[in-house]
Write a structure and sequence with these properties.
The complex is a heterodimer of chains A (211) and B (131). Chain A has helices at 2-7, 23-56, 66-69, 72-98, 101-131, 140-173, 177-210. Chain A is an all-alpha fold. Chain A has a single domain (35-210), classed as Four Helix Bundle (Hemerythrin (Met), subunit A), CATH 1.20.120. In chain A, α4 (72-98) runs antiparallel to α5 and α5 (101-131) packs antiparallel against α6. Chain B has two domains: 1-78; 85-131, no CATH class. Chain B has five helices and no strands. In chain B, α2 (25-48) runs antiparallel to α3. Chain B is elongated. Classes of the chains: A mainly alpha (211), B mainly alpha (131). At the A-B interface, α1, α2, α4 and α7 of A face α1, α2, α3 and α4 of B.
């Protein structure tokens, strides 16, 4: 009876029905909420790294400044790589909803390729900076820059590894409820990384060059 | 027994909304289109230096960045105030609050620390000329 009265109005607790036949959907709901809270904790990590960069970002120690270092056309290109990977992951989820395993896999592979392109551009940028002497040891600005952008790059790397694992799982098991749940978790993770990248290119690259 | 039938009907509702929550082709394309526009404008502003006031340009870059974040949250992460019975919105707003406190607090405190720790040349001269 209590569930009936609670149905119409907002509930401030997570309902549990483990013994129910359709408990699986609730399990799925719990996973989504839990994964979202993980993403929020990740958001706090990036928040502190952004704060570190905000504090240290102008301390050049007589070294190079953002305007000397950053090539904005390359940053624009990698921004679009990440944006394309976001939309192709969306297409993959839409194929999954239709029950089309082949289409899901193809769009996932495309997403992975865009992710790898982004990583390749970032590695290229970092190695270029390293060669001209802009290492993390050069100034506080570069230390915080490498920490912030590197942490994001590390997340994208982990996302790519997860994507490969998911492709293997899809190949073996097909579109089972478990795999659909994993698809939705990686979807949230992937779109979240694109969201963080918006902060990185606005705050670090564009504002860094402008100020 | 009646309670279990109630929960199972609730489940099917949840299930339906969860499927609606994956978005549609249309919503993904709207989100993508908005993101492209909101990416190109700040890059164009920065790379061509069209605005005389750099401060205004930075403000526009930040506002458009925040706008694109909202677009991503709504169209790609499918967040709204009803998703997961409001828990997503609640945890997101709490996180945003914490990030704002950490960011603004750090910048504020460290700005004043810098001001007081590193006297400029004329400040030193002023102190020297004191009786």
């Amino acid at each position: 009876m209590s569930t009936e009265t609670a149905m119409g109005q907002p509930e401030f607790y997570v309902r549990q029905s483990a013994h129910d036949d359709e408990g699986e959907h609730h399990h799925e709901t719990g996973t989504m909420l839990g994964f979202w809270i993980y993403l929020m904790s990740d958001c706090l990590i990036f928040g502190t790294l952004f704060a570190t960069y905000a504090v240290l970002g102008r301390n050049f120690a007589a070294g190079p400044s953002p305007a000397d270092l950053f090539e904005l056309d390359m940053i624009l290109l990698s921004t679009f790589m990440l944006l394309f990977s976001s939309i192709t992951y969306g297409f993959s989820v839409l194929r999954m909803d239709k029950g089309d395993l082949k289409g899901t896999q193809i769009w996932l592979v495309v997403t992975g390729l865009f992710g790898l392109a982004f990583l390749g551009l970032e590695i290229h940028e970092f190695s270029h900076l390293w060669h001209i002497g802009a290492t993390p040891m050069a100034s506080a600005f570069l230390s915080s820059f490498y920490t912030l952008v590197g942490t994001h790059g590390l997340h994208v790397t982990v996302g790519c590894i997860w994507l490969v694992v998911l492709l293997v799982q899809l190949r073996i098991r097909g579109l089972t409820p478990e795999n659909k749940r994993r698809m939705m978790c990686l979807s949230m993770f992937w779109h979240f990384l694109d969201l963080i990248w918006i902060g990185v290119f606005s705050f670090v690259y564009l504002a860094g060059v402008l100020v | 027994m009646s309670a279990s039938s109630n929960t199972s009907s609730g489940n099917s509702q949840d299930h339906g909304s969860a499927h609606g929550g994956h978005g549609s082709f249309r919503s993904y394309m709207i989100g993508f289109g908005l993101s492209v526009v909101l990416t190109i404008i700040p890059f164009w502003l920065t790379m061509t230096d069209v605005l005389d006031s750099r401060l205004l340009a930075v403000a526009i870059v930040f506002i458009l960045g925040a706008g694109q974040m909202i677009v991503h949250i709504y169209f790609f992460l499918h967040m709204n105030s009803r998703a997961e019975e409001g828990w997503l919105a609640m945890s997101l707003s709490f996180t945003v609050l914490l990030v704002v406190i950490v960011l603004s607090g750090s910048i504020w405190v460290m700005f004043h620390l810098d001001e007081n720790m590193m006297p400029s040349h004329d400040q030193i001269e002023r102190v020297k000329s004191l009786p």
